[in-house]
């Protein structure tokens, strides 16, 4: 079987200039379903240990269902994008920085103009779901809408406990070897995510207050068997964003695009269709 990271070498790379919040970055990205031509763009934001390769073929399948073009990319520290230097720790507000600085810079580098951004949908999973919410809150005049899948809006005990267990598995089983197929620097990817989530300072992280600024159509999805968060996450979204639609999937864990792809795709397609 071909190594997914090797396969991802066919990806393109965008060069982002240094700013006050980060140095120069090389971002791995790929377009999917380009045959859709001038159709709206769906942007996919991966989970805390994700990358282009870890999405597999789900973004393409969903874009074909929606009739959209898809933009998939690996955030800094993941996949083939610029690795996190091993001595660097992600700050508590690292997801805000992604929404405020990195994602707009990527759109600029790819010449995605404001007209295209206003037609765009952002679809994020887990940490990517939180970044999706933050982007929608920070850019209320952009986007056609957003889909947050298993997002975090505050830190729960279940999240910290599961992430601590994942660290033990990474250091004592073949999990590190398995993840190395998806990241050029697997330790950079893993510990960047794991260290910040297990940092005692991160227990106070929350983006509940930012949610009220979201004006665009919003779909929030979570599995009933999610071991990284309870339904309190999307229920809180529903309280703070009254126009949001919530979907709770049975027999589904933290990764609906893997655990229940048909149900997830149907929920997203139906929601976007209702927005016209």
Automatic annotation (TrEMBL):
Top-level taxonomic group: Bacteria
Residue ranges annotated for the AB hydrolase-1 domain, each copy included: 43-267
InterPro entries: AB_hydrolase_1, AB_hydrolase_fold, AB_hydrolase_sf
Keywords from the UniProt entry: Hydrolase
GO molecular function: hydrolase activity
The keyword Hydrolase belongs to this UniProt entry's keyword annotation: yes
Listed GO CC annotations: membrane
Pfam families, per database record: Abhydrolase_6 (PF12697)
UniProt name for this protein: Alpha/beta hydrolase
Gene source species: Paraburkholderia polaris
């Amino acid at each position: 079987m071909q190594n997914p990271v090797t396969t991802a070498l066919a990806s393109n790379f965008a060069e982002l200039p240094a700013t006050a919040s980060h140095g120069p970055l090389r971002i791995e990205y790929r377009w999917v379903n380009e045959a859709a031509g001038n159709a709206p763009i769906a942007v996919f934001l991966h989970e805390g240990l994700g990358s282009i390769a870890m999405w597999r073929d789900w973004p393409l399948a969903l874009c074909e269902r929606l009739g959209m073009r898809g933009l998939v990319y690996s955030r800094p520290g993941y996949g083939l994008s610029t690795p996190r230097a091993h001595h660097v720790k992600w700050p508590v507000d690292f997801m805000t920085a992604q929404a405020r600085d990195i994602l707009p810079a990527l759109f600029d580098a790819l010449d995605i103009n404001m007209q295209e951004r206003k037609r765009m949908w952002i679809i994020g999973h887990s940490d990517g779901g939180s970044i999706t919410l933050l982007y929608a809150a920070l850019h209320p005049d952009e986007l056609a809408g957003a889909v947050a899948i298993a997002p975090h809006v505050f830190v729960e005990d279940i999240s910290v406990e599961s992430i601590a267990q994942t660290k033990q598995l990474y250091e004592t089983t073949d999990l590190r070897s398995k993840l190395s197929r998806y990241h050029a620097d697997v330790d950079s990817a893993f510990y960047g995510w794991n260290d910040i989530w297990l940092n005692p300072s991160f227990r106070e992280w929350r983006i509940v207050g930012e949610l009220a600024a979201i004006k665009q159509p919003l779909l929030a999805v979570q599995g009933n068997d999610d071991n990284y968060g309870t339904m309190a996450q999307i229920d809180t979204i529903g309280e703070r964003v009254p126009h949001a639609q919530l979907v709770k999937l049975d027999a589904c864990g933290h990764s609906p695009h893997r655990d229940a792809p048909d149900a997830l795709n149907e929920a997203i397609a139906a929601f976007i269709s209702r927005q016209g």
